[in-house]
Automatic annotation (TrEMBL):
GO MF annotations in UniProt: iron-sulfur cluster binding; metal ion binding; NADH dehydrogenase (ubiquinone) activity; NADH dehydrogenase activity
Protein's recorded name: NADH-quinone oxidoreductase subunit G
Highest taxon of source: Bacteria
Listed EC numbers: 1.6.5.11
Gene3D superfamilies reported in the protein's UniProt record: 3.10.20.740, 3.30.70.20
InterPro entries registered for this protein in UniProt: NADH_UbQ_OxRdtase_75kDa_su_CS, NADH_UbQ_OxRdtase_ferredoxin, NADH_UbQ_OxRdtase_Gsu_4Fe4S-bd, Prok_molybdopt-oxidoreductase
């Protein structure tokens, strides 16, 4: 299986989703489980509880818990990105929407992925914080 977002539209292409393919459903559940490995599973306590795209996706895949109960990553909370925006890296699933926004929309790559492997995180690119 491949992610549909990595493929271009083509005449006659058949797309199977979690609703039509057991293989696609299993792959989607596996990806969701990996997204939740380091994510706190305290949705009722979270500010976004009930209004969270990740929580909605987890519910739709039937994967609202994790087999992995080891210690989750911990980071300094929160990082002031600006006077209006705070970054909580413990809740970040590294989707990179914020990094794409800073580069493509704001035109200033002030936030980016830092480090590698299990230490990868979103962080402010420069020392100066936007006010």
């Amino acid at each position: 299986p491949v992610a549909s977002c990595t493929q271009t539209v083509a005449e006659g292409r058949v797309v199977r989703t979690q609703l039509t393919s057991p293989v696609a459903k299993k792959a989607q559940q596996g990806v969701m489980e990996l997204l939740l490995v380091n994510h706190p599973l305290d949705c009722p306590m979270c500010d976004k509880g009930g209004e969270c795209p990740l929580q909605n996706q987890a519910m739709s895949t039937g994967r609202t818990d994790s087999r992995f109960h080891e210690h989750k990553r911990e980071y300094e909370k929160p990082i002031n990105i600006s006077s209006q925006v705070l970054l909580d890296r413990e809740r970040c699933v590294l989707c990179q929407r914020c990094t794409r926004f800073s580069e493509e929309i704001a035109g200033d790559k002030f936030i980016d992925l830092m480090d590698r492997s299990s230490g990868e995180q979103i962080n402010v690119y420069r020392d100066d914080v936007y006010g």
